[in-house]
Write a structure and sequence with these properties.
The complex is a heterotrimer of chains A (256), B (346) and C (230). By secondary structure, chain A is an all-alpha fold. Chain A is built from ten helices and no strands. Chain A is elongated and about 75 Å long. Helices cover 39% and strands 21% of the residues of chain B. In chain B, the strands form three sheets. Chain B has a six-stranded mixed beta sheet with strand order 6-7-8-3-9-10, with helices on both faces. Chain B has a four-stranded antiparallel beta sheet with strand order 2-1-4-5, covered by helices on one side. In chain B, strand 7, helix 8 and strand 8 form a beta-alpha-beta unit. In chain B, helix 5 crosses helix 7 and helix 11 packs across helix 15. The longest helix of chain B is centred in the middle third of the chain and has 18 residues. Chain C is an all-alpha fold. Chain C has a single domain, classed as MetI-like fold. Chain C is elongated. Chain C starts with a helix and ends with a helix. The chains are: A mainly alpha (256), B alpha/beta (346), C mainly alpha (230). Chains in contact: A-C, B-C. Chains A and C meet through helix 1, helix 4, helix 5, helix 8 and helix 9 of A and helix 3, helix 4, helix 5, helix 7 and helix 8 of C.
Chain lengths: 256, 346, 230
């Protein structure tokens, strides 16, 4: 078993998946634009009742999207700060032995149901935006942490050795050698976390933290298909676009 | 040639799409039953392609190939391959199968019954010098490189095919193991008498293994097809001479063994160096130089001293193998040998 | 009510829901494995096709599960059907990808040797290539299983079976006497099931991975591998 397939996480965009750069990169935006256009035409052609009209208007949709993005962004920033710093600490000398433990926990965390985590947190802290953020962070910090550890550890020992040998300080070795070389794997983790946050963000509605999940839940509860479908398509488009952005960033940072 | 050749290639051509020149161009050759023909040449000359067309691992573009009187292009590919032994440099032992399963793969595909398969496996393992009891249930990764090559040969021999194709079958081993495997295989060949097409880029291996050697140039062009003796003594042209490389005279010593020359009676005291009777004269010369002696002792299978061979016998042997030395060829040979370091052998 | 009392008083329903949860994951994994392995095996020789299959399943995996489940209510209604379809879709990527990678990584010398001894494509695939790729495929199956365990919990909202129902009951009862117990039992139950499934798959690997392609089965190696999927 080789390292050709790095454990990607859950909602895993494969870190090294086969891809062609260039035109192939346009496929995702094209699909998303087509889907949104189709959605727009479909919703517009159907007669909407008053309940549907209340949600299917620009103002409501824009605020749901904004809430969703805000939730995703805030959580991702926390995830990055926590995961990157602890990932780096866990690959330094004295803490090294903890690293396998962290990656192990990360793998078990994969099986934790996000909704369970969310409900438990709201029992503890009450419902609201901050509870949702904590749940999202707790859920998606693990893949980034794991990829940071794996990424730094897979840097060839002789390279690090050579860097130290020519007199680089430990900090310089970290910043100029280890992190740049680990970047592709770390970025893959960040991309995974972003996609996870968009996905788990749909569940924020259950703790009154808004987002596009509101539309899905309303659609299901009130049995209004157009509302449900609009929410689902919008959040799927958001996830695909975020993943696509991540892929583009990865492309730009790929060592050649 | 009185009897019909075992393998016969006629105007065989292989043209790959998008390439200006054919990889194999108009190749014709007859190979008699029981002989080892070595195809030797620089890498990329088309020797492997030529060999691989015989069991249709590569389809010829045109021409005809007959094996054992049968036109192979009209045969079913897989059936054909099961009837031709095939050994390659990477060996390709299946890592998830035991040695026995690897060796027996063709007989099992041919539907032999279990008893017969088991018997055959044991027989083959003994034949290639691996104790059946000890090695039968091992996995490929538990074997050394040399042992893997032997199992590869055993697998190729499993269904007792009359014809074998060998593509640098000993290539992936260290020089000492390789030499050992080579002489072991030659001993084996005396028993099994297969018709063998053997591909190598190593001219010394070609001399050791071949009954006849075909020196190939680009497009699998046959530059010379003759016995090792004749190629060493009379290289057909400059290119062959260069390929034969430096030290052609010394290489001739590889063609004969101590058992082929006359011995002087064994003396009472032990000579400084001794070798078994099946050692080559080249090895004998080597031993003499190493021991700073002009003589070498000859041992029998039990390691008892049976006779002596002196340096003058070796000198005569070099002369013997080129009885009709053509002065021009010799000159070309020497010239080529001298030019090797600057131009580099192909 | 303490957690222990809760467990005792709801024993029957909890066991039933755990069984349902395991059942729906098992069924989905079975379907996904068949589809994924077939897709991988049919496409791995054609990089364009296999990268298309991988890209499509990766895109599908990107879609939030709650959204996909919602969309599936349209054609499939509430309950078991949308749950299985969604779980199968999410389970595909790791299986397809690992099948493609596992098969593509088989040493060309082995496929060459298989042809050389007269094996046809199918025989070579079934007796040589697939057994060698199997550990990698199995690793993909393990990743998928872990993943859809958690997604199955969300499916309870669209009427799916299993322990997710405890979690959503806890949610609707937030602040009630048993909301914590319900959420805890649902969440931990799913994790425990996931670990049990993973253990079972390790055992499957132990029994089915050919000795010759194993890379050591010491307890330590096993532990390491359980941490480093693939």
């Amino acid at each position: 078993m080789s390292s050709a397939v790095i454990p990607t996480a859950v909602a895993g965009p494969a870190p090294r998946r086969v891809r062609r750069v260039g035109l192939g990169r346009l496929a995702t935006p094209a699909v998303v634009v087509t889907a949104l256009l189709g959605l727009y035409l479909w919703v517009h052609s159907a007669p909407l009742d008053s309940i549907e009209q209340r949600t299917l208007n620009t103002g409501y949709i824009a605020s749901a999207v904004r809430e969703h993005l805000w939730l995703t962004l805030v959580s991702t920033v926390f995830v990055l700060v926590i995961a990157l710093s602890s990932g780096i600490v866990l690959t330094r000398g004295p803490m090294r032995w903890l690293a396998p433990l962290a990656t192990g926990v990360a793998n078990i965390g994969q099986a934790t149901p996000a909704i369970g985590l969310l409900v438990l947190l709201s029992v503890w802290r009450g419902i609201g935006f901050s509870t949702a953020v904590i749940a999202l962070v707790a859920y998606s910090v693990l893949p980034v942490l794991r990829n940071t550890i794996v990424g730094i550890r897979q840097v060839d020992a002789p390279i690090v050795d050579a860097a130290r040998g020519i007199g680089m300080s430990p900090l310089a070795v970290l910043l100029r050698i280890e992190i740049p070389l680990a970047l592709p794997v770390i970025l893959a983790g960040v991309r995974t976390a972003l996609v996870l946050n968009v996905g788990v963000g749909t569940l924020a509605t259950f703790v009154n933290a808004g987002g596009l999940g509101d539309m899905i839940v309303n659609g299901i509860k009130l049995q209004r298909m157009p509302v449900l479908i609009t929410g689902a398509v919008l959040v799927a488009s958001l996830a695909l676009l975020v993943d696509w952005l991540g892929a583009v960033v990865e492309d730009l940072n790929r060592p050649r | 040639m009185s009897s019909e050749p075992m393998i016969s290639l006629r105007q065989v051509r292989k043209m790959y799409q998008g390439q200006a020149r054919p990889a194999v161009d108009d190749f014709s050759m007859d190979i008699a039953a029981g002989e080892i023909v070595v195809l030797v040449g620089p890498s990329g000359c088309g020797k492997t392609t030529t060999m691989r067309m015989v069991n249709r691992m590569i389809e010829p573009t045109s021409g005809s190939i007959r094996v054992n009187g049968r036109d192979i292009l009209s045969a079913d590919q897989n059936q054909l391959r099961r009837s031709i032994g095939y050994a390659i440099q990477q060996v390709g032992l299946f890592p998830h199968m035991t040695v026995a399963k690897n060796v027996s793969i063709v007989p099992r595909m041919l539907g032999w019954d279990r008893r017969r398969v088991e018997q055959r496996v044991d027989e083959l393992l003994d034949l290639v010098g691996l104790g059946a009891v000890e090695y039968r249930d091992r996995l490929p990764r538990q074997l050394s490189g040399g042992q893997q090559q032997r199992v590869g040969v055993a697998r190729a021999l499993a269904a007792d095919p009359p014809v074998m194709l060998m593509d640098e079958p000993f290539g992936a081993t260290d020089p000492i193991t390789r030499e050992h495997l080579q002489s072991e295989f030659l001993r084996l060949q005396k028993i099994i008498r297969k018709t063998i097409v053997f591909v190598t880029h190593d001219f010394d291996e070609a001399i050791r293994m071949g009954d006849r050697i075909a020196v190939l140039g680009e497009g699998s062009l046959i530059r010379q097809f003759d016995t090792p003796e004749n190629i060493l003594a009379h290289p057909a042209d400059e290119v062959v001479a260069r390929f034969v490389g430096a030290g052609a005279s010394l290489k001739r010593l590889n063609l004969r063994r101590l058992s082929d020359v006359a011995w002087e009676p064994a003396p009472g005291r032990k000579p400084p160096a001794s070798l078994p009777a099946d050692a080559t004269l080249h090895a004998a010369l080597d031993a003499m130089v190493a021991a700073a002696s002009t003589q070498v002792g000859v041992l029998d299978a039990d390691g008892r001293l049976q006779g002596l061979v002196g340096i003058d016998t070796l000198m005569r042997a070099i002369g013997d193998t080129a009885p009709t030395a053509d002065p021009r060829a010799e000159a070309a040979l020497e010239g080529a040998a001298g030019s090797v370091p600057t131009e580099g052998a192909a | 009510m303490t957690l222990w009392e809760f467990l005792q008083s709801r024993q029957d329903i909890l066991i039933a829901q755990a069984q349902e949860h395991a059942g729906v994951v098992l069924v989905s994994m079975g379907i996904a494995t068949v589809i994924g392995v077939l897709t991988g095996a049919l496409t791995y020789r054609k990089p364009r096709l296999s990268s298309l299959a991988i890209s499509l399943s990766a895109a599908a995996l990107t879609i939030p599960s709650f959204a996909l489940l919602g969309v599936l209510i349209g054609p499939l209604g509430l309950g078991y059907a949308p749950t299985v379809v969604a779980l199968v879709i999410y389970a595909l990527l790791p299986i397809i990808r690992n099948t493609v990678v596992g098969l593509a990584e088989v040493d060309p010398a082995l496929t060459e040797a298989a042809r050389g001894v007269g094996m046809g494509r199918l025989r070579s695939l079934a007796t040589v290539e697939f057994p060698i790729a199997w550990p990698v495929v199995l690793a993909g199956i393990r990743v998928s299983t872990q993943m859809i365990m958690g997604i199955a919990a969300i499916a309870a909202y669209v009427g799916g079976p299993g322990l997710g129902n405890q979690i959503f009951d806890g949610l609707s009862d937030l602040g009630g006497v048993n909301s914590t117990n319900r959420a805890l039992v649902g969440t931990i139950g799913v994790i425990v099931l996931a670990l049990l499934f993973d253990l079972a798959l390790v055992l499957v690997g132990f029994l089915t991975v050919p000795r010759g392609v194993r890379t050591g089965w010491s307890p330590l190696a096993l532990f390491r591998r359980s941490l480093r999927v693939v």
